[in-house]
Amino acid sequence: MKGLLKTLGIFVFFAQLWLPVGAWAGVSGQDAKVLERLEELSAGIETIASDFTQEKYLAVFQEAMLSSGRFYFKSPGSLRWELTQPVVTGFVLKGNEGHRWHQRTGRSESFDIDREPVMKIVAEQLLACAGADFDWLRQKYKIVVEAQAPVRLRLDPLFETAGFLNYLNIQFSSGGRYVQMVEVHEADGDYTRLRFENVVINQPLAEELF
Amino acid sequence: MSLSEYTATAYRYFSSRRRLLYWVTSVLILLSVIAFTGIRLEENIEAMLPDRGSRVAGDFALLQRAPFARKLVISLETDGEGGNAVLVAAVDRLAAALDPALFANVVTGPESQMQGRLFNWLQDALPSILDATDLEAIAVGLDEEGVRQRLQENYEQLLAPEGMALKGLIRRDPLSIYLQGLKKLSHINMIPQMRLVDNHFVSAEGKSALLLAETPIAMTDSAGAETLLASFAEAVDKAIPGNISATLVAGHRYTLANAQAIQNDLWRILTGSMLALLVLFFCFLRSPRAGFVFLLPMAVVCISAVAVSWFFSPVSAVTLGFGAVLLGITVDFGLHVYFALRRGGAAPEAIVGELARPLLFGGLTTMAGFAVLLFSDLPGQRQLAVFSIAGIGTALLLSMLVLPHLIPAVGPEQAASSRRWLLRIRRQRRLVLGIWLLLLAACGWQSMGLEFNGDLRRMSLTPPELVAAEQNLRQNWGDFRSQAMIWAKGDDLEEALVANEQLFALLQKEQPDQPIISIASLLPSAKVQQANRLRWLNFWQGAQGQRILADLRRESAAFGFSEVAFSPFFKTLNVPSQPVTLQGLRQAGLGNLVDSLVLAEGTAAEVLTLVPDQPELANLVEGQLQGAVQLVSQGRFRREISAAISHDFFRFILWASIVVVLLLLLLFRRVGKVLAALVPVGTGLIVMFGCMGTLGLEFNLFNIIACILVIGLGVDYGIFMVCKSTEGYSGATDKAVLVSGLTTLAGFGALVLARHPALHSIGVTVLLGIGAAIPAALLVVPVLYRGEDI
Lengths: 210, 790
Hints:
The structure holds two protein chains of two kinds.
Chain A: H1 2-15, H2 29-43, E1 47-57, E2 65-74, E3 78-85, E4 89-94, E5 97-102, E6 107-112, H3 117-130, H4 134-140, E7 141-148, E8 151-157, E9 165-172, E10 179-186, E11 191-201
Antiparallel strand pairs in A: 1-2, 1-11, 2-3, 3-4, 4-5, 5-6, 7-8, 8-9, 9-10, 10-11
Helix pairs in contact in A: 1-3
Chain B: H1 3-15, H2 18-37, E1 41-42, H3 55-63, E2 72-78, H4 83-97, E3 104-107, H5 114-129, H6 132-141, H7 144-159, H8 163-172, H9 178-185, E4 194-197, E5 200-203, E6 208-214, H10 222-239, E7 244-249, H11 251-285, H12 291-311, E8 315-316, H13 317-326, H14 331-343, H15 348-371, H16 379-406, H17 419-427, H18 429-446, E9 451-452, H19 464-477, E10 484-490, H20 493-510, H21 526-541, H22 543-558, H23 567-574, H24 582-597, E11 598-601, E12 604-611, H25 615-624, E13 629-632, H26 634-668, H27 671-695, E14 698-699, H28 701-727, H29 733-747, H30 757-785
Parallel strand pairs in B: 1-8, 9-14
Antiparallel strand pairs in B: 2-6, 2-7, 3-6, 4-5, 10-12, 10-13, 11-12
């Protein structure tokens, strides 16, 4: 059960990265232009490598939880997410096959996303995002441009989120080429902020990363 | 006045009133045909299973209630290309393509929302289902370090991307007590080698997927089975790509295969049988009047059926079909009348009178053979007994009273053409006796290896492709369709659940390594649930629980958790939890499981446990819980049927032999004659047993009846030959016995050509038995009794 919930959480996290934009019917003319430009920029992305910091503002904690790690994406269909502080853990996805690890427990295991329904959804959404499948993402979210310089979007899910995801805020870099900050807002008021730093686009990535 | 005189007098009486005789006979036959149309027939196999409150009948009824007994099981297999996604997509396409009128309630996986609902249910149910052992395990696992470790995991999980989804679970159960509950779920996995892929049933190695469905078509409906399979093939063609195969495993496939085999067999058998009868007709009869002899069985079929309907309702269609074939033996009576009258040498009334005694006793011994079936535990066999007795009795009367008027006598005696070669052989007395004794010795020795098999499936045709499909299914998914079932019964659900708990506890204690499918751990009795809840409260209010909670508070603060972080958990410890109910399990998404394992009709209830079909488990359960539970399994059912057949067989043979010997004593009043009359039947049976033992053929429900047929006919041959050899009976006995035997071989022996195992086994039995009884009657009886030219 935790595996199911785990993959559902992963989905929510990744679904908001490297956001797609596309044929923006129903969006105001100015906003549509902004989104179309983002769509053009993201369409050429082959690889992404980035540091990230995570701030979790949860009622279950007395203070914000801070953590950091690395993120890698390679088209088509490969990604790596790893947390390096304060714990070392993470996972890699390559097509349907995945691998996850945890340094403290020493646990390391392979998995098949077909056997983990929520992980399957994660992979679908993530690959759609990274592969610039804007048609697919438009079906999943209602997207609103909240600010234009830098671009900040609000994404309200159109799918069932089991009641815990409320909406996402995405802020792009000044050039619009990559995501700079993501906020995941939960239904109970908790939220998580992710800041991406040292983002490198379309540089070769080592095969062993995946 | 003797029987011969009575018969001769009757002949004379009706000679001048033939029109009246024919009219009365025709009206009787016509009335029986009309009455026959009103008989209620039943086509299922239950008539061939023991009744009278027998355990086998009860077990058969329970076997029909196995979770997968009436399900259509569809297995899809991929060659590996495209992986699980292609397989799962094919499953969905096939499920959509199946005709809902024929394939109802198609299931490809658990309910999509089940996992979430089940988990919530499990958390709520923990106080009711965790027992003392579970709480002890919790206490041991949650020492200070254990609590710290759980909180560390919670902290890390909340830090990870999945944290948002896990937050609610962690707040309600920070100590992961649900893991103890998850162990209980392992006992409800009915398909051992199944895993879920995208919420679909997929086999462990990932190359097979499973669909389950129900159908309104009865398993015995061959026409419906043909429609069902055609519809399935059409859906497969439409929905499944070339690299995936789909196989339907269901009883309907057996039904259709058997129906088609019998249809094909009928043509082969009828053709073979008709050709053989035509050859016999042209070789031995050659007269249109002989046609009346062959009308005898047809004339008595409806009369026999009506007689059965007086005693039984409904009447088994299997019995009638088989009985109608059996009545083919009544031709023998007609043949004796025909050959005697056609041989001539005396006035017709004298010939008929002389024939009466051996004919009557021949008929009586055959009827006696079938009469022992009246004491069978199988209703179908009892019906067959009535059918045969009525048919043989009526045919006997028609042969003695009506048939002689339809076959004109020829006057002067005609020489028998077959007599010369028979005489030549009979003169080789030592050779005949030597060969006979050698044959008896060899066959007697070989008959030691004869076995009885009660497996109903062995009596039906099982096509190799269906065997392969079943084997494949077992290999991919485990043997989930043939587990032993243990029913815990009670006057109400609570009583049944108590019995089920006792059973589960016993199995867990004595056979902990056996895979057990039971709802006991998820649905304890109300009494046990109440005790569990009380123990749960006491645990958390007691020293161990308070220590764990203190550790939790202290360590959670150390990890930075807020004071409200685990308030949902603390709240559940103070609020009385609700009991686990059937309704709750259904709402949790376990409705199919509950319906399969719990049967509540009115107030009475039964709870099912599935275990591997192993004798030691059966012995354990019945030894310790006799009366409280009932175990049924296909393996044991086969053994019980086999034992019943074996028991019946020896009982029937013994009683048939006793009755036949008594009748023979009444007829001949001399032991020597009686023994001589028993030579054909004895030879037939020993040769039949010996050959079957040598060839590895087994006795089953059907050829036991054929065996009685061999007894009846073999004794007939013996009676006629002894009458001829010792009492100067002048009828054309040799020819009549020979042609009778040959017609029986043509009618029943032709069944050996059948592909269908039941028909084939009858054919083999009769072929061997009658095939040996004829030469024994024609050669051994005369040689043995007198040893001279007769």
